[in-house]
Structure of ABC transporter substrate-binding protein:
Amino acid sequence: MRKSFWLIMVLLVLSASIFGKVTITAAVWSWDLEKYKKIAAEFTKIYPDIEVQFVVNEPDVNGFLTAQVAAKKPLPDVVVQSWEALPYPVSQGWIYPVDEFLKNDPDIRYVPKALKEAFMYNNKTYALPERLHFQGIYINLDLLRKLNLTKPPYEWSVEQFKLYLRKSTTKEYSGINHLWDFDNVMAAVLNKDTTYWSFNPTKWEFDLVNGGWLPAIKLQKELKSIPGLVSDDLKNDELRNKGEMDDYQKKFGKDADAFRESKVLTGLHGTWDWSWIRTLPWKFDFYPLPLDPKIGLRFPVHVNYAFMTSTTKYPKEAFLFLKFLTYDPRGVIARLKIDNANGIENGWNIDWFIPATMHPDVVSYFDSLKIPDGVKWLLKKLDKAVRVDMWKTVPGWDQATWDVIFPVSEKVRRGEVQPEVVAAETQEKANKIIKEAWVEFSKKLAEIEKKFPELRKQIEGK
C-alpha cells in the first residue's frame, strides 16, 4: 500500500512537470538559428518550464508573416531581430503591444527613452530594441601618431574634426575615405530636433528648412572643396574604363586601397562593417560623428527590434523570452558571452553586438570585450543616441525620401541647385506623402486597437 502511494505521487509529480511546461515558438533568420538555440538554452536554465522552439523566417520577416497568414498557419509567438518596416505588421494586427508587461518592470528603466519609445504608436509599444549599430568614424591611430597628431577626445567638435582632416591631407595621405550619406546622417547631429534627412520625429514631418539638413550640407561641401581631403572623390571610373590613371591611382598607386593601406586618417562607417573592419592591419578606434558644442553630443544609432505576436497563447511566457532577448541583463550578458566564445582574431572579438540597455551589469561585461574603446564609451552615453533608421517606423518614408528628397539631394550634391532654394518646396512635397500615409495607417491602427481585446478574449477563452 505504501509503495503504491509513493508510485502514485511520483507519477503525479511527473505528469505535473510534463503538462506544466509551456512551449513557445520564435522566428529567426536562418544564419542565426544556431546562435539563438544557444540563447534559448540559457533562457530555459532560468525558466525551465518554458521551452523555445524555432522556425526560420525566410525570405524576410514581413514576407514570412504574410505567408504564414495566407497559408492559415499559426504565427510564431516571438519574432527575433527585424530591421524591416514595422508599420506593416502593426497595421495587420499581428503584434501584441507589451506595455502591460513593461509597467513596473525595474529593468526597463535602463533602456534610454529614445530607444524605449522608438517603436510606439498611439502610446502603445509594439516592439522592443534588441540590437544596435552605431554610425560614426573609424580613426587610424597609427597614422595619427605618424603625423604627430594627438588623439582627439570622443566628444570632438566639428571644428576639431575639420582640423584633423585638413592636417592629415597631404600629397601622400587623405583625411577621410568618403562622405557618402554624410549630410543626411549629420542632419541628426547638427540639430537637437531632427534626425536622418532632417525628419522631426516629434512633429512627424521633415524640416529641411530649419533642421539639420542645411548645416550638414554646408559642412559636407566645405570638406569636399579641399583638394585631396576625400580620398574616394579622386576616383574617376570614366578614366579607368579608358585605361587611364585617375587622381586616386596617381596619389595612392594603381591597385591601391588607400584606407586599408593606412593612407587615410578616418573612415565613415558603422559598427555593421565589423566583419572587415577588424581585419584592418593598423590600430584604430571608433568615434561618434563630430558635434556642435551648442547642441552637445548626439550620435546616430540604428535599432533592430523584436516583438511578440498578437495570437500567442502564452503572452506572459512569450514576453519573458522577448525581454531576455532585449533588455533583461541576464539574457543580454548570456548572448554577449555566446558571441565572446567565438574567439579573438587580430586582437579583436570576432563577434559581438551593442545592447540596448545601460544596465550596470551589462556595461561592466561589455567593457571586458576586445572591441574599440570608443564603442564602450558610447554605450555609457547611450541616452545621447538619436535614431536615424526612421524607415523602420515611419509610414510613407521610402516614397517621401527616394521619390522626393533623394533626387533633389543628388542635384544639390552635383551643384545643380542651391539647397536653400529647394528646401521649402521639397519638404512640403515630402510631408504631404508622410501625412497621407499616416492618415491611412491611423485608420488601420484604430481598427486593430478596437479588435485587439476581443481577439485576446477568444484566444484566452474568456
